[in-house]
Design a protein that fits this description.
Layout lengths: L1 E10 L3 H11 L3 E8 L4 E8 L2 E8 L5 H9 L2 E9 L2 H10 L10 E2 L3 E6 L9 E6 L2
Parallel strand pairs: 1-4, 5-8
Antiparallel strand pairs: 1-5, 2-3, 3-4, 6-7, 7-8
The structure holds cobalt (II) ion.
Cobalt (II) ion (CO) binds next to β1 and β5.
Length: about 130
């Protein structure tokens, strides 16, 4: 079952510059920073109450986030919904004809994740995540 918004992810050109606003100006704390070579991005995760904000900087122009910024500029990249049973929710959505980017859950930054295609969600890239804990 889908429980809450786990995080909102924002595509940025320069992570350090973005942190000057989200960390220093807004005063949010960074609880994780990681480079994901396979995804072609550098990420910082900031805590905001029970949710998080992810800042995503592409490692180059020819990466998914790099192409996103090229097409649409910096800004909202995806919204992540937390589920307590990603296998069941993904199977249910598939059965309801929702267009998926990931046919099966895979390992992501926050646990097991999958993405739904914006064509099925009114233009927003949606991630489902089942955190490890
Ligand atoms: Co995410």
């Amino acid at each position: 079952m889908i429980r809450k918004i786990h995080h909102v992810a924002i595509a940025v050109k320069d992570l350090d510059e973005a942190l000057r606003f989200y960390r220093d100006t807004l005063g949010l704390s960074v609880h994780e920073q990681a480079t994901q070579e396979d995804q072609g991005l550098k990420a910082a995760v900031l805590t905001i109450g029970e949710s998080e904000i992810e800042l995503l900087e592409p490692l180059g122009p020819d990466t998914p986030v790099g192409r996103f910024i090229e097409r649409r500029g910096e800004g909202l990249h995806h919204i992540c919904l937390q589920t307590d049973d990603i296998d069941k929710d993904l199977a249910d959505l598939k059965a309801k004809g929702v267009e998926l980017i990931d046919q099966e859950p895979r390992q992501g930054l926050v646990g097991r994740i999958c993405f739904l295609h914006p064509r099925s969600t009114k233009g927003v890239l949606l991630e489902l995540a089942q955190p490890l804990d």
